[in-house]
Automatic annotation (TrEMBL):
Organism: Sesamum radiatum
Gene3D superfamilies the record matches: Ribonuclease H-like superfamily/Ribonuclease H
PANTHER family, per database record: RNA-DIRECTED DNA POLYMERASE (PTHR42648:SF27), TRANSPOSASE, PUTATIVE-RELATED (PTHR42648)
One Pfam family recorded for the sequence: SH3_retrovirus
Protein name: Retrovirus-related Pol polyprotein from transposon TNT 1-94
Domain Integrase catalytic span(s) in chain numbering: 1-123
Keywords: Hydrolase, Metal-binding
GO biological process terms on file: DNA integration
InterPro entries linked to this entry: DNA/RNA_pol_sf, Integrase_cat-core, Retrotran_Ty1/copia-like, RNaseH-like_sf, RNaseH_sf, RVT_2, SH3_retrovirus
Highest classification ranks of the organism: Eukaryota, Viridiplantae, Streptophyta, Embryophyta, Tracheophyta
Cited SUPFAM superfamilies: DNA/RNA polymerases (SSF56672), Ribonuclease H-like (SSF53098)
Length: 498
């Protein structure tokens, strides 16, 4: 869609397709406040058809987080696809349609079926998928027997109306549909495309004449120079060999068995014991018999070596995580949305701190999600390595949230919000994870990013009192001056005003 003014027409087409193909009616439409969604014709159309509209507040894209995140994923896919070809940027629309098709065919941890399967009622077939932008020889209809029977083209999309592929033919600069094609699987799109473009440029730059030499003069044998042949063996460069190293960088155990056979097994055992002690002290669960007709949620251990700013291992963490993908909507959970501090908010706070020479302190909340309470009735299996002897058949009845539960992040955020506002901090209107407290000439900012807390202010006593008060409410770790957050190393030089 090139123009936003076409949004209304596209929505009507989409609604008809959805209702005709699925039999379901659109009842609610959630929108941001873009001008294309505020037109009188769209508003009247929604009222006439009994469709409720939900508007997100200005500057609050997280309230429409699913679509925002989906668009971000699609954009990343398009950028990646375009970078592997030399196709013009005008082909981004074809790349976007292909990315959307692939994303709809990909599995998701939030759904038992792919979007494609939900829509069509059958699993998708992947055998016809091809790398976007890859070269292919496409059969062509020729009149002259001496003409080439195929042309080197570029695959750019999958047509909706017919079986086959969309191909781009550079020589004629046109896109057409065909099924008769042989794809070149062993070359990257950008390699052959670059050679083709160079060949095209050189052929266009070379003037053509009507004179054709049928026979070249014969050169005497004695005048032929013997060329020196290189003994070096030519090999295709390994442009993407570094991708093979990515799997070696993540060497944390994936299972309980791997942790027990790991070189740091003693560290992992200590980390798991610490996690179980935290669960016990926070009264996260009670051990009970499983009620009849109830299916417990599974759990697993997640291991992580936490690195410092210089890449050294500082903490061995073992988290007991619920298998949230086994939860059922309306039974084990209701709402799951939880806000995150925006990166631009953190940058703005840092800029304010640098300009006014504020203190920047950092704290870490231990066992973060254990601070949230569970409203639903949830039962969970006992974890590996810590099953109660003689009570193996029993399960945990959860009283608090733990990592992995779909509502865990939301429960923690709601509880923290209640607590911090009880200490006279005021929530920011545009970022619900940024708080501010003012007392006379003293000012303090608090930024929450899951379990990381930043405290910024001009009054050391106020910041110290806030840290002490937070420590009475949660199990906290004081990290002193902020040095590392969200993968960013923080270096401060106050002599230079930063």
């Amino acid at each position: 869609m090139r123009y936003k003014s076409k949004a209304f027409g596209r929505f009507k087409e989409f609604r008809l397709e959805v209702e005709n193909q699925t039999g379901h009616k659109i009842k609610i439409l959630r929108l941001d406040r873009g001008g294309e969604y505020l037109s009188r014709e769209l508003l009247d159309y929604l009222k006439e058809n009994g469709i409720l509209s939900q508007w997100t507040p200005p500057g609050m894209p997280q309230l429409n987080g699913v679509s925002i995140r989906r668009n971000r994923i699609l954009l990343d896919m398009v950028q990646s696809m375009m970078s592997f070809t030399e196709l013009p940027l005008s082909f981004w629309g074809y790349a976007l349609e292909t990315a959307a098709k692939l994303l709809n065919m990909a599995p998701s941890k939030n759904m038992a079926q792919t979007p494609y399967q939900i829509w069509h009622g059958k699993p998708a077939s992947y055998k016809y998928l091809r790398v976007w932008g890859s070269p292919a020889y496409v059969k062509r209809l020729v009149e002259d027997k001496l003409d080439s029977r195929s042309s080197l083209c570029r695959f750019v999309d999958y047509p909706k109306e017919t079986a086959g592929y969309y191909f781009y033919y550079p020589s004629e600069q046109k896109v057409f549909v065909s099924r008769n094609a042989v794809f070149l699987k062993k070359s990257f799109p950008a390699d052959t495309q670059r050679e083709e473009l160079l060949h095209k440029e050189s052929s266009e730059a070379t003037p053509q004449t009507d004179t054709v030499t049928l026979f070249a003069p014969i050169v005497p044998t004695n005048d032929i120079l013997v060329l020196r042949r290189s003994t070096r063996v030519s090999q295709q460069p390994e442009r993407y060999g570094f991708l093979g190293l990515t799997g070696q960088l993540d060497n944390d155990p994936k299972t309980y068995e791997e942790a027990m056979s790991d070189i740091d097994s003693e560290k992992w055992i200590e980390a798991m014991k610490s996690e179980m002690d935290s669960m016990s002290s926070n009264k996260v669960w009670t051990l009970v018999d499983l009620p009849k007709g109830v299916k417990p949620v599974g759990c697993k251990w997640v291991y992580k070596r936490k690195l410092g700013a210089d890449g050294e291992v500082t903490i061995f963490k073992a988290k007991l995580v619920a298998k949230g993908y086994t939860q059922r909507p309306g039974v084990d959970f209701e709402e799951t949305y939880s806000p995150l501090a925006m990166a631009k908010s953190i940058r703005i706070i840092f800029a304010i701190a640098a300009w006014y020479d504020y203190e920047i302190w950092q704290m870490d909340v231990k066992t973060t999600f254990l601070n949230g309470f569970v409203e639903e009735e949830i039962y969970m299996d006992q974890p590996e390595g810590f099953t109660s002897v003689g009570e193996e058949q029993k399960v945990f009845h959860l009283q608090r949230s733990i990592y992995g539960l779909k509502q865990a992040s939301r429960s923690w955020n709601i509880h923290f919000d209640e607590v911090i506002r009880g200490y006279d901090f005021i929530k920011n209107d545009f970022d619900p994870c940024v708080y501010k407290k003012v007392s006379g000439s003293s000012v303090a900012f608090l930024v929450l990013y899951v379990d990381d807390i930043l405290l910024i202010g001009n009054d050391v006593k106020m910041l110290g009192d806030t840290k002490a008060w937070l420590s009475t409410q949660f199990s906290m770790k004081d990290l002193g001056e902020a040095s590392y957050i969200l993968g960013i190393k923080i270096i401060r030089d106050r002599s230079r005003g930063c």
